[in-house]
């Protein structure tokens, strides 16, 4: 198995053994701490918290949330560590060396592989009724469960929504598309005068929901399955919109780096983006008149993607009770309200989204609505391999260099060869 090879080659087993011995020697503060992490001697406990960097506003919100926590827990100090580059590589290296943070961010995309190694602490035993687990959006929480155990609680997320230029749709006499067929027809009508009807991000992270809309599985039994007829058929309209209809475009083709920029510059009338695009457009293109809607249905079914990040606890932490106090505050109702108050991230708790009004917000309501039925960007430990091979070959089909079925067949074969050789 991949996880066994990873642990053996990088020494995690030794690290865990050392932490167990340390616990037997009484160094784990769970044996001498109250529920707030206070030590028996009255000394402060320092808990390390690691995450990747955000924009200045997000960092300010996080520091405010931590400050509020420390005020309520005077015997716990939080040491915040921002890892700006190669976050997961740094985290894995530190976990291997026995110097991992007590609490840290974990993306749902990376969660299955890391959980398999045993370095993440199961959290069910710490949970109290007051914590209100049922308040979390179920798909977001389930992404951090393995064999019925919970290894992380989601701190925030974003789904995908349809962003559309109100003026362009109005001038073209186009209604907001509610089905995928309507979107395709709308894109044709909106493509004129150097503007494309639809801007596309031709990558699996954005199209996983569409790929499985015909009943197929992108990943099956831990292996790539995206060359199946159901998946190819579901993705074929994306290819046809670009190569036959000439109504869609990807960012590099119009000299930009991503969909939000393409949309803001008026080079595409519609794009599918996440919550991150809202503050970007407000800051960079404040004059654009746009709105959002839930993604168009396919075969009468609603679907979207969710990109989900949780706080998790290091299984080798010597400060587990204090770490849980921090983790549960950050993902609790009070801490989450502070962290998500400005809408840069969406709260994974339903009650917090309602309290902040995001479920009724003109731009964010469609994103919030999608959380209950979203497909979370997480599909087993081999997804990183599967993604790389899909993206490399799908783009060639999108640009018209080869048929989609041929491109995905080659990509699937290569992905599964890599998986089998681990």
Tell me the radius of gyration: 23 Å
- Give the helix level as a range of percent: 40-55%
By CATH, the superfamily of the largest domain comes out as Periplasmic binding protein-like II
- From the spread of the alpha carbons, the general shape counts as globular
N-C termini distance = 8 Å
Class per helix and strand makeup:
alpha/beta
Largest sheet descriptor:
10 strands, mixed
What's the rounded overall pLDDT mean? 91
Q: How many structural domains? A: 2
Beta percentage is 15-25%
Count of distinct strands:
14
Q: Find the CATH topology of the largest domain.
A: D-Maltodextrin-Binding Protein, domain 2
- Total helices: the number is 18
CATH-scheme architecture of the largest domain: 3-Layer(aba) Sandwich
Protein name: ABC transporter substrate-binding protein
Family: Belongs to the bacterial solute-binding protein 1 family.
Keywords: Signal, Transport
GO cellular component, one term: ATP-binding cassette (ABC) transporter complex, substrate-binding subunit-containing
């Amino acid at each position: 198995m991949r996880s066994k090879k990873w642990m053996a080659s990088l020494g995690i087993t030794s690290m865990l053994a050392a932490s167990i011995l340390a616990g037997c020697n009484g160094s784990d503060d769970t044996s001498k701490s109250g529920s707030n992490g206070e030590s028996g001697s009255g000394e402060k406990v320092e808990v390390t918290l690691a995450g990747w960097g955000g924009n200045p506003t997000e960092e300010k919100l996080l520091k405010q949330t931590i400050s509020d926590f420390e005020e309520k827990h005077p015997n716990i100090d939080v040491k915040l560590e921002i890892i700006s580059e190669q976050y997961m590589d740094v985290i894995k290296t530190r976990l291997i060396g026995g110097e991992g943070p007590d609490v840290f961010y974990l993306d749902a995309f990376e969660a299955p592989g890391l959980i398999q190694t045993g370095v993440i602490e199961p959290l069910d035993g710490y949970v109290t009724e007051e914590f209100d687990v049922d308040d979390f959006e179920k798909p977001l929480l389930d992404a951090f469960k393995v064999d019925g155990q919970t290894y992380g609680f989601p701190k925030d997320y974003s789904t995908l929504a349809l962003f559309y230029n109100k003026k362009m749709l109005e001038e073209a006499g186009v209604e907001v598309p509610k089905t995928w067929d309507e979107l395709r027809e709308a894109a044709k009508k909106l493509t004129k005068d150097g503007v494309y009807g639809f801007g596309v991000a031709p990558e699996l992270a954005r199209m996983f929901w569409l790929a499985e809309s015909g009943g197929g599985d992108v990943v099956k039994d831990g292996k790539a399955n995206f060359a199946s007829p159901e998946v190819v058929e579901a993705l074929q309209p994306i290819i046809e919109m670009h190569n036959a209809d000439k109504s869609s475009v990807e960012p590099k083709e119009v000299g930009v780096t991503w969909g939000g920029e393409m949309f803001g510059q008026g080079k595409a009338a519609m794009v599918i983006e996440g919550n991150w695009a809202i503050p970007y457009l407000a800051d960079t293109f404040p004059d654009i008149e746009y709105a959002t809607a839930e993604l168009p249905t396919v075969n009468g079914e609603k679907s979207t993607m969710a990109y989900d990040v949780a706080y998790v606890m290091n299984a080798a932490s010597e400060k587990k009770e204090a770490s849980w106090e921090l983790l549960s505050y950050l993902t609790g109702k009070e801490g989450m309200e502070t962290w998500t108050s400005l809408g840069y991230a969406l709260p994974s708790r339903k009650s917090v989204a309602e309290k902040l009004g995001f479920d009724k917000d003109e731009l964010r309501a469609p994103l919030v609505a999608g959380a209950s039925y979203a497909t979370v960007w997480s599909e087993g430990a081999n997804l990183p391999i599967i993604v790389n091979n899909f993206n490399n070959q799908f783009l060639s089909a999108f640009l018209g260099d080869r048929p989609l079925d041929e491109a995905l067949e080659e990509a699937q074969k290569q992905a599964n060869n890599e998986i089998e050789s681990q």
